[in-house]
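Review form for a predicted model. The reviewer records the input and the model, then writes brief findings.
Reviewer: anonymous (R2)
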Amino acid sequence: MIALVTLTSTAALVVALGLVDAASAPFDKAFAQQRGPHVVASFDRAAASDAALARAARQPGVEAVAGPYPEASVALPQNAMTFGLGRQITMVGRADPDADVDRLDVWAGRWATRPGEVVLNRDRDWAPDDLGKTLTIPSGPRLTVVGFAYGLSGTADAWVTPGQADALAPRASQLLLRLTDGTSSEDRLRAGLATVTEELPADALTAARTYLGLKERVSGSARAYTPYLMAFGVLGIAVSVLIIGNVVSGAVISGFRHIGVLKSIGFTPGQVVAVYLTMISVPSVLGCALGAAAGNLLARPFFDFVFSGPDAGILHGSVSIAPWVNAVALLGMPAVCVLAALAPALRAHRMSAARAISAGSAPRAGRALAVQRRLAGSPLPRPVSLGMGLPFARPGRSALTLAAVVLGAATVTFATGLATTMDRFGHAGRGAYDLTVYVGAHEDGREIRPEHGDRALHELLAGLPGAREVTARADVEVGMAGSAQEVMLEGRRGDRPRLDDVLTDGRWHRAPGEIVAGSAFLRQNGLRVGDTVRLERGGRSERVRVVGEVMQTNSRMIVGDWRTLRALAPDEDPIAYHVLLRPGADADAYARAARAADRGLSPALTGPNSVTQTVVGSAAALTTLLALVAALGVFHTVVLNTRDRRRDLGMLKSIGMTPAQVTVMKVTSMAVLGALGSLLGVPLGVAGHRMVVPRMADAVDITLPSYMTDVWQAPALAGLALAGIVIAVLGALVPARRAGRLTVAEVLRNE
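Model under review:
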């Protein structure tokens, strides 16, 4: 039992500590592992030769350098989108994926070694037949895709051999720099770059960016996971240590009879303590070693699952169990076991042989007898009243078991609230449509445009069987007065232009000149609901007023009336149509009908939200693991209590208590702890939810509507009140039934 509990607890501890470590700074770890560049700089090849750039990179303050590499900006045909590429890409000539700076992970295929070959920068979503496809460059050769690689810093969209890059007439040379003061501010990094370029012509540097912008963008997504992973990590560590302490100390106490026998045959008190610490250490070390191995095996796919949301490619292959986590588990958990065993072993050290022999079964005067007498006088059935008094016989053991049940109930409560919030988050706006029909399709590498115009398409889609509502959507980039950043204005036209369930403040736009904007957009531009801004595009301008705030993570996105969009871009047509189907309509059948009606359409069903799936799935897995550990603690407590009170069991059975009544008595004893655990654990879980969820939202710069955070209604709390009881009863049921099957003769023979 000690080996089993230490194995499970150590596995939980390894996963918990690994989560805390992985969530603390995933970008920094990935960046260091791949030797990412602190500065990515592009230079005009006509103004600075490769030899001059190589000399400049040897300036003081440069830790490592890669390049210069020939860098070409290449226009691609529309069908390049099938590779996840845009119309304009950066192609770099590079002979080797491994370098002192920006080590690339070639995770599919191989590196380009000959002219006519290309490696694409992509981190997932590929099929084996993608290798071998060709990428046609209108102004150059046809390139065969021989591999997929992932570069943490996004220094290129594709890589070819240096000779192939030279054939593309590159106008720039790329230099990747790691600086000795690379962890400092943007200003210090720019100063370091200025030192490198001070001897080059003034116009040689054409573009430069530091890694801090990438870190901020990526870490926002990772920071959203950090609060709840930290919460589960702390809960896992606490539950594991509590259970280990309870199990090991209880095992020593239940062995007092054996200790008395050892003393009676001549073992000294010191030898007895040494014997027991050794007996505890052997299964503990074995369980810890197996648990650490199991934790590492569980953690790898688990981390892949946890970090599988947006921007997960940034962390590709970098999130793993740190060596210090295994060291803590392999050294710390046996130490916890020995310390937990030391106190009762020293207590046995002071006992006489006769007292130790009788400690496990002899009656104890004053041990919770007052509570048991009061319960015996109650109208409760005798097995229930006896069971309710049992926890008071071993108050220390019961307190540790109760603490584990409290944390288990808190974990279930917290996970339930988190899952409810994330489910509502994932479905926000999804009730407005069942599928999206995009304008444009690709077939055999060719782009196919729709045969119908905008209004005809709208009518066509609305007339297909099963359609209930159709809303057109167009996006256009516009300028905003007072800001250098381009803004994406989205306009909606049709049956459902409003998405009220993502509104967090104000109201939805109702007329031209009104917009709603995301929390991130408002915060980054210092705006509030009610403020007015001027949008500009191609000599046209419109003054618009912010009338509402919506839950939107894109800091560049605003949503306005269709007439507002057409006032700035009169020729802009919809890029997609959102379709809401009638109840019971087949979405797949509608998609097939849309394709058949116009080959230039690309219907896409609304899929599940990846963030929601990631958080809910990982929370469910962690909750199951921690609840299992807590139930094992209850299991062991019942086993120990049965051993301690075997004389009482024999007496009760000898006067007529049935096996079923014994089972009820034992289960009741733990159900009392379960009820108390729920009473304390549910409020703790609610408090954790209210503390963690706002921090998750703040990490990605959004505000959640109140209906996503106010998830605690009376029915939900009533159901959660059973969490501790269920954990306790499940843990107690098997040993309680075993206790019920003990015969009087077996008990008395053991005595």
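Findings: The CA atoms of residues 122 and 150 lie 6 Å apart.
Further findings: The first helix runs from residue 2 to 24.
Recommendation: see findings above.
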